[in-house]
Amino acid sequence: LYTTFRHRKYGTVIELYEDSQGSFNFVVSDEALPEVCRCMAITEFVIEKRDYLFHPMLTDQLRRDSDNDAHSMLRYPQIPGGNWFAESAHEGVLISHKGKYDKNNVAIFLIPDGFIFVSRGNINNLDHYRTRQALIVRQGFCYEVEIQ
User: Fold this and answer.
1) Which of 41, 50, 68, 148 is close enough to 36 for a disulfide, judged by CB 3.0 to 4.6 Å?
2) What stretches in the chain show pLDDT beneath 70?
3) What are the CA-CA distances from residue 41 to residues 30, 68, 71, 103, 140 (Å)?
4) How far apart are the C-alpha atoms of 43 and 45, rounded to whole Å?
């Protein structure tokens, strides 16, 4: 089962698998299709390129229906999706991840013009554990930053 979010104006897509351990698929904008990225943030922060979404037909439906509010997150105060849980927040949406065995769970923040994801740290390299890497997608552009 997948939960998919799409930004109405920029076409940014986030695809969450219900049993995910913290990774997710995303598309920066409609213009970026068919370039799909997978954010792997289970033990270290890695962005890999893919050439598919798991449910492209759902993304197409959201694209076609984006002019009405039938699928708007604002209609639903909370959306459960397996290990993911989305809830409306002030001017955005907080998507939290809670796996069975995770001690450091991750979150994605949907903001008015994109999303922000902050990794949980590199647990494969304890010297860099306190360094967090973030993925920021705003107005159809993608940035990777490091936070000390």
Assistant:
1) 50
2) 32-34, 41-44, 66-77, 99-105, 120-130
3) 24, 34, 28, 13, 22
4) 7
d(CA 59, CA 56): 5
pTM of the model: 0.80
Chain centroid offset of residue 110 CA: 8
In tens, the pLDDT along 61-72 reads 877 776 666 556
Classify residue 101 by its DSSP letter: S
Residue 128 token pair: 């860099």
**Tokens read off for 143:** 């940035």
- H helix runs in 17-101, sequence order: 56-64
